[in-house]
Structures are given as structure tokens and as C-alpha cells.
Amino acid sequence: SQQGEEDPQALSIQEGENATMNCSYKTSINNLQWYRQNSGRGLVHLILIRSNEREKHSGRLRVTLDTSKKSSSLLITASRAADTASYFCATDAGGNNRLAFGKGNQVVVIP
Amino acid sequence: KAGVTQTPRYLIKTRGQQVTLSCSPISGHRSVSWYQQTPGQGLQFLFEYFSETQRNKGNFPGRFSGRQFSNSRSEMNVSTLELGDSALYLCASSLLDHGYTFGSGTRLTVV
Question: Which residue, A25, B11, B48, B102, could crosslink B56 as a Cys pair with Cβ 3.0–4.6 Å?
Fold first, then answer.
């Protein structure tokens, strides 16, 4: 089964800086989603990008998708301490109604 | 509107016992999925229900089972608990292709 993989695994940045994390997957997808998780709590849906889209914005978030390289990136601009969390990408391919998650990126924003 | 509600939040069980976890989806969401999160394996798909029918099942032993009721509420059951079943169990509900809304999870500890 396909699996998202994020790179890098851990990122520590100063407040106000941008944070970028990447995700790769192995098979064709219908869409790719990014989620945030704070301290082992539930996942919060951030953004969904469809396979026919190349870029999507939501507030301070920018997601890109390159289906030819089977990769996606999540950019958080002007980071805040509240952005400290783990970020996961997940793919939902072939209408299987199941998400395959990557291992996650730990982002720490230092005030 | 209310989010996805999972009960209980925390649970401690002894090896060999069984456990039932509950999930109430967002009103109007008919799809309910379950995921297991552990430090070693990450987020793994357990199963997905739609209109009281299991549509998808992940690669978990038969000790893991679930069901969905006519009001879309779902339960998952784990029988003959093992230490390795200690995990955060997350439930998610969705409308088609709109991303998933996760509950806060049930933290299960098996001792």
C-alpha cells in the first residue's frame, strides 16, 4: 500500500521564520492531505490538495503537489509558537476511503 | 456544530481483557474510520464504516473489530489485549472528499 513519507523528521526554528516540510508517496493518488497534531492529541485537518491541483493556500499555509515526482511540500510562513506540533501528510488513493500517513514532522517554534 | 467525540479519553486495561471504544461522528457524516497510533508504527488504518457496513479493513488481527450503528456512531473492540495494543486510537468522520475530522482519541494502556 502507498505511504506518505515526510522529510525532514524534526525541525526547530525561530518564531517568524518559515518552515518547510516535504512528503513523498509511491502510487497514484486522488488527493493529498496535511494534518497537524499537538502533543499526541487528535489530528487537525489543515489542507487538502487534489491531484489536478499544483498549489493551494490557506492562511499562512502553502501546499504544493508535484504528481510527476510524487511529492508534496507544506510551507508555514511567519511561524508562531502555537505552530509547534507534528505535521503529517496522508494520501487517499483510488477512493479506498482510507488514509495512508507518513511518519510525521516534529516542528518546534522557539519564541 | 459538535466535532467527533471519542470516549473514554483514557483507559487502562490488563493483558487478556477486552475493551470497547466509542466514537460519535459529526452529524451528517456517514463514514467513520479508525486509526491506531503508536511511536513505533505511526498512524495505521484499522477499518472504515459507511452506513453500518465495513468498507475497508487494515492489516490487523481478528482481535480488532468494529461496528457502526444506524445513527452512524461507531464502536471498536479489541479482545484478548496484548501489551503491544497500547496506543492512541483515533476515530475520524468525513463527508466524501472533504478531508477527515478526527476526534481527540482514546489513550489505551495495557498493563
Answer: B48
